[in-house]
Design brief:
about 0% strand, about 200 residues, single chain, mainly alpha, 2 strands
Length: about 200
Amino acid sequence: MDIVSRAQAICLKPKDEWAKIKGETTPVKELFTSYAFILAAIPAIALFLEKLLFGYKIPTIGGWVSYGIGRAFLFAIFYYVFFLIVVYVLGLIINALAPNFSSTPNMMNAMKLAVYSFTPIWVAGVLYIIPFLGILVIFAGLYGLYVLYLGFATPLMDTPKEKVLGYFAVTVVVAIVLWIIVSVVLGAIFTAGAILRGI
């Protein structure tokens, strides 16, 4: 798999790319090892550099708290692993929800939907290096939702046209809940750690 070409096509021509992706038989393991593992490292590395260079803002104590290299690295690793878990769990849920929307369960295609729709976020994740630019990743996330919708509409899960919007909407809610859980856990781990250290 040419990861650069695939990421570029998913971001610039998602509708055409989904049509190609639907006909591919990429094993789930390869989908992660040759694509997700690599692209998910972009925001993780950017966050590592951001924490190292700028630190972390903790509202309860005010101001920015600097991170040592070990702490910044640990944050990046947690973020990277949690992000990949979210993608995998989302794929599992997309597949499990299929019968509810008159769709055909297909783990491979469900994982394609989960993995490839995160491409815009991963690519834009490089912006995390500069704190005030990190907010732009939110817009990339919204575009990722559009990419996900096009994947459902292709339809990767053989979803009837009238069921696509509902399937997509439920998936978006699940993705948001998963991301909130990860954000809360990450925030709790590292904010509590900073406070307990007496920073």
